[in-house]
């Protein structure tokens, strides 16, 4: 069974906190027969929808094929956090790649946040961008390292992050679990499903043809074959991230799917005055969360590495939540769900022209909500001959998994499991 079909009913959005609040559109018809177009986008997540929208706005004929529903995958299930940067800090990027490349990459990541906010404001008012994202550390040493990274970036890149103490964090979000952290007000959070659905409607308005329940079974050059037809195009963008990386071999060699889990509490009494900025902490398997305006805690934490979700997602998330909010260990969890994202060996994202006219993006390693929209746009720029920004990302060191996909995947999974063990030992 593939990652695409391992969990949940086909063609139905999972019962997430976001889906319960979404204005769900009517389904788009499956592909039925053969078609020709200029750009065929495979995948109806943020990467694919952004690419389709930008291509259509540039005058290209676009067909988008989605195996389930638009926004069905990680794009519509994630924690909603939109932050500048990559998995590597700007200081680490500079040490490994040089100051000039690190600066250019950080500027692109800042553009990714602005683009996400602009697209949400223009096409998805229900996404409700809320500014502010806190990087929180459990120990003073972790906070000191965060502060050093922030000072480096502030001096060289002009960023402005504020250091918060344990008491300030407690006053803002109601927990003493963290020794301190760094607050970045340029990032924030949105409702990811509302964002994806808004982009889909914008695509339709721009002339994009969307087919749902149209899984691409094979890609032959720039011809995408589904069960009921084939779309032949001048360009193809493979944008399925963790769900069907095997459609392009170089992507399959580099992108490793993993599962992550989120739960939402019932409204917590006296929580309405807690700050609404998002939080991501210093664990290897990150805890990430935010408080809604009506006092619900949307909390993500915990991973699994097989295709199937665990039977007790609530229990898995509750154990992580209780380490940060022990007083909420017994709180009612109204929603609990899983999603499949993807990482790479270097934890840097993958963007490449993998064959003539065939582009691929994925492996965002936890930074996909912001970067995906930009990567879709950059792929379209490259198709139109403006490759400089695309090539800057494509040159990131994203090696194939050592030992091939099977052995390399096992080794990467072992490393992530060890990281989660060290998390439990120190928190």
TrEMBL record:
Residues 39-381 form the FAD dependent oxidoreductase domain. The keyword Amino-acid biosynthesis does not apply. GO terms for cellular component: cytoplasm. One of its GO terms (molecular function) is oxidoreductase activity. Pfam families: DAO. Its EC number is 1.4.3.-. Keywords: Oxidoreductase. It comes from the Bacteria. It is an enzyme of class 1 (oxidoreductase). PANTHER family: FAD DEPENDENT OXIDOREDUCTASE DOMAIN-CONTAINING PROTEIN (PTHR13847:SF281), SARCOSINE DEHYDROGENASE-RELATED (PTHR13847). This is Gamma-glutamylputrescine oxidoreductase. It comes from Jannaschia seosinensis. The lineage of its organism: Bacteria, Pseudomonadati, Pseudomonadota, Alphaproteobacteria, Rhodobacterales.
């Amino acid at each position: 069974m593939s990652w695409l079909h391992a969990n949940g009913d086909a063609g139905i959005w999972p019962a997430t906190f976001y889906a319960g609040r979404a204005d769900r559109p009517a389904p788009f018809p499956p592909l039925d027969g053969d078609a020709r177009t200029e750009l065929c986008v495979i995948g109806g997540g943020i990467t694919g929808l952004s690419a389709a929208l930008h291509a259509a706005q540039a005058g290209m004929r676009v067909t988008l094929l989605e195996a389930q529903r638009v926004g069905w995958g990680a794009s519509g299930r994630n924690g909603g956090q939109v932050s500048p940067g990559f998995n590597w800090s700007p200081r680490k990027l500079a040490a490994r790649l040089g100051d000039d490349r690190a600066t250019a990459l950080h500027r692109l990541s800042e553009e990714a946040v602005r683009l996400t906010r602009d697209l949400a404001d223009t096409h998805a008012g229900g996404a409700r961008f809320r500014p502010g994202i806190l990087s929180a550390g459990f120990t003073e040493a972790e906070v000191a390292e965060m502060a050093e990274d922030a000072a480096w970036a502030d001096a060289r890149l002009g960023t402005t992050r504020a250091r918060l103490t344990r008491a300030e964090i407690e006053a803002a979000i109601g927990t003493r679990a963290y020794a301190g952290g760094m607050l970045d007000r340029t990032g924030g959070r949105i409702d990811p499903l509302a964002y994806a659905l808004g982009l889909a409607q914008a695509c339709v308005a721009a002339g994009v043809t969307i087919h749902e329940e149209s899984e691409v079974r094979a890609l032959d050059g720039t011809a995408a074959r589904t069960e009921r037809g084939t779309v032949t195009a001048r360009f193809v963008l493979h944008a399925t991230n963790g769900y069907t990386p095997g459609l392009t071999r170089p992507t399959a060699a580099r992108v490793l799917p993993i599962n992550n889990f989120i739960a939402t509490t019932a409204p917590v009494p006296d929580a309405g005055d807690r700050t609404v900025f998002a939080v991501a902490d210093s664990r290897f398997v990150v805890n990430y969360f935010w408080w809604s305006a009506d006092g619900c805690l949307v909390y993500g934490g915990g991973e699994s590495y097989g295709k199937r979700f665990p039977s007790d997602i609530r229990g898995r998330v509750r154990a992580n939540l209780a380490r940060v909010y022990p007083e909420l260990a017994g709180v009612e969890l109204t929603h609990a769900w899983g999603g499949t994202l993807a990482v790479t060996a270097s934890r840097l994202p993958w963007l490449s022209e993998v064959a003539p006219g065939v582009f691929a993006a994925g492996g965002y390693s936890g930074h996909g909500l912001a970067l995906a929209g930009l990567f879709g746009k950059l792929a379209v720029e490259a198709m139109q001959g403006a490759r400089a920004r695309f090539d800057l990302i494509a040159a990131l060191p994203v090696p194939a998994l050592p030992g091939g996909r099977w052995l390399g995947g096992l080794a990467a999974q072992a490393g992530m499991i060890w990281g989660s063990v060290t998390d439990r030992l120190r928190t």
